[in-house]
Amino acid sequence: MDSSSKEITHDFPPLFKVYKDGTVERYMIADYIPSGHDPTTGVQTKDVVVSAETGVKVRLFIPKLDGPSKKLPVLVHFHGGGFSIGSPFDTPSNNFLKCLVSQVEIIAISIDYRLAPENLLPIAYDDSWAGLQWVATHSLGLGPEPWLNEYADLGRVFLAGESAGANIAHQMAIRAGTTGLVGSKVIGALIVHPFFVVGKEVDEMYKYICPTSSGCDDDPKLNPEVDPNLKSMGCDKVLVFVAEKDRLRNIGVGYYESLGKSGWAGKVELYETLGEGHCFHLFNPNSEKGMALMKKMVDFITED
Q1: Which CATH class is domain 31-302?
Q2: Fewer CB in a 10 Å sphere around the end CB: N or C, the chain?
Q3: Rounded Cα gap, residues 299 and 292, in angstroms
Q4: What's the Cα-to-Cα distance from 286 to each of 2, 56, 218, 236, 283, rounded to whole Å?
Q5: Origin, by domain of life (predicted)?
Q6: Distance CA 27, CA 29 (A)
Q7: What gap in Å lies between CA 134 and CA 138, rounded to an integer?
């Protein structure tokens, strides 16, 4: 084999690197947690293919229910990982969502969008929108998934994501407001430690995985402040989470401020965790600050 084929042409630690022959190597490989019953939380999970054409799947999380069946609010989740790593099936996503679902009695649906760089953006956004539309098909109890037909209240939908997933959740709220989501009502969005870009410096990784983007702050997907559709966010409220030691902390605060002055009619709130870094709650969910963050999420979902 030509040794030059193993020359690295693009390197974006801690996410991935690309060799001259096109091979992609990720710095972190997501583990896999099988679906089924979790004896600790009582949460049941199931994996469902939502598009035979693309192979996109979702993992459903449903809480332990005592007594007669009842309609539950729905949380649609988009995992983080720079659009290029992570999964609804890995340990961090599963631990976080099982804990949240068991505390708030909500159905969670985490979308396994196709990853870059093999699948260039906007594929992750489009897969996520297709997954959200698939959820909405159950609004009359006639969709393909029995759990959602029986238990889902699609008049109470929440969007959630962390890091790049928060970017996706924001975009889904924009699409819900501008395109519409038939049969469903998005109540709120939980935007956790969001990935956006501020300033003229190009984000080379994003530009590589999204060749149509400039990679800097004139792209509305990277800088909501320049998005003319920001005031059309299709939800009633947004909770923005930031962490004091996160390099993206000021970007999250800027997003909160931009949304507040955009003319959007909803309510936006900022919640900061002191002394912690990026997405700390996914890796230490049982810490005091991790549990406090979780309680804030529960209160946001359950408040009138």
Answers
A1: alpha beta
A2: C
A3: 11
A4: 49, 31, 39, 30, 9
A5: Eukaryota
A6: 7
A7: 8
The residues carrying an active-site annotation are 163, 246, 278
Distances (CA, A) of 191 to 256, 261, 267: 10, 17, 13
Q: What string of H, E and C letters represents the secondary structure of 79-148? A: CCCCCCCCCCCCHHHHHHHHHHHHHHCCEEEEEECCCCCCCCCCHHHHHHHHHHHHHHCCCCCCCCCHHH
pTM of the predicted protein model: 0.96
C-alpha 90 chain-centroid distance = 14
3-state secondary structure 109-123: EEEECCCCCCCCCCH
Burial 70-81 (b: 16+ CB within 10 A, else e): eebbbbbbbbbb
Task: Calculate the CA dihedral of residues 250, 217, 223, 278 and round it to 10 degrees.
Answer: -40
Containing H/E element for 78?
Answer: strand 72-78
Provide the residue ranges of all domains of the chain, joining segments of one domain with +: 1-30, 31-302
